[in-house]
Design a protein that fits this description.
The structure is a single chain. It contains nine helices and 18 strands. It is an alpha/beta fold. α6 (186-195) runs parallel beside α7 (207-219). The structure holds flavin-adenine dinucleotide (FAD) and FE2/S2 (inorganic) cluster.
Length: 283
């Protein structure tokens, strides 16, 4: 089936009205939300959904987890109208969902049996935590580097520390030194990439970080994939809001490999489109 049309053919694009079944604080600015939706419950790591907050807006969110049958969860940072309304929502409140949309890490073939280096910052941890939870039992060797400004902003720290028992190595870095290494997460990434062999580096988080990790992976000849965030409205390849170079992030991504990212030179790491379609510098 063509990925470009998968939203139509699988019915993923149909808006389903559902309810929040769990709401939990994750950090001072981030909460996780679980909702009932059998379609998104079967999503693959890297895919995203569109969440409609009635009367406010519909926003794209990476899938944090799903049980394959009934529920799906997301982690949301309170940054504006829709995310703030969601932060004020309670268990039982009505929301709408479309999806799952987009491709997944590993280009559909998964990442089983590979040596992975995962690099995350901010809410970018969500799809990579989903991936590592799903693939650790499947002969994956993983090192996970998580970066943030302060310890408070290191999301899902306990979950990631807990995965050490399952064989994952975990490294934290904070800009104020309140947890893990002092400085940017790209510093431990550079050390790991220089000292060890990895088959694949996966990054999700602030775009300057993704750009730096791409440069490091390319220098050392390691395969690289990153998940991109751009303005999204239709999520089906129709409106053009999410265009970067020749790609529409919603249907061709959100996960892209090194050669695709190289084709986006001058845009990846530097610019995005605003609601009127103009290119503006990344904030
Ligand atoms: C594929 C993808 C996955 C994402 N995953 C997550 C996630 O897991 N957790 C999370 O907290 N955030 C995620 N985001 C970002 C999230 O969609 C925005 O923070 C949210 O849309 C902000 O909406 P708002 O009304 O709260 O804020 P607004 O005040 O409307 O916007 C604040 C900023 O959010 C961005 N934004 C606003 N509307 C959109 C939109 N329709 N599409 C994309 N960006 C927008 C813009 O940069 C804007 O400047 C993801 C974005 C994309 C594209
Ligand atoms: S969000 Fe409309 S084309 Fe991607």
């Amino acid at each position: 089936m063509s990925r470009r049309l998968s939203g139509y053919r699988t019915g993923a694009n149909r808006l389903r009205v559902t309810r929040l079944v769990d709401v939990k604080p994750v950090s001072p600015t981030v909460k996780s939300f679980r909702l009932k939706d059998s379609k998104c419950a079967g999503a693959k790591p890297g895919q995203f959904l569109m969440l409609w907050i009635p009367g406010v807006d519909e926003i794209p969110l990476s899938i944090l987890d799903g049980d394959g049958r009934e529920w799906v969860s997301v982690a949301v940072k309170n940054v504006g109208a829709a995310s703030c309304a969601l932060h004020n929502a309670k268990v039982g409140d009505v929301v709408g969902v479309r999806g799952p949309f987009g491709n997944s890490f590993g280009n559909g073939s998964g990442v089983s049996g590979r040596r992975l280096l995962l690099v995350a910052g901010g809410t970018g941890v969500a799809p990579l935590l989903f991936l590592v939870r799903r693939f650790l039992p499947k002969r994956v060797s993983a090192a996970f580097v998580l970066g943030a400004g302060t310890k408070d902003e290191l999301l899902f720290l306990d979950d990631l520390e807990g995965l050490k028992k399952k064989g994952m190595r975990f490294f934290a870095a904070t800009e104020d030194g309140s947890c893990g290494a002092l400085g940017l997460c790209t510093e431990p990434v550079e050390r790991l990439l220089t000292e060890e062999h990895f088959d694949l580096v996966l990054a999700c988080g602030p775009e300057p970080m993704r750009l730096r990790v791409l440069e490091l992976a390319e220098k050392l000849g390691v395969e690289f994939q990153a998940s991109l965030e751009r303005l999204m409205r239709c999520a089906m390849g129709l409106c053009g809001s999410c265009v970067v170079g020749k790609y529409r992030v919603c249907v061709d991504g959100p996960v892209f490999n090194s050669s695709q990212l190289r084709e986006m030179k001058g845009e990846f790491g530097f610019s995005k489109r605003d609601f009127s379609g103009r290119k503006i510098p990344l904030g």
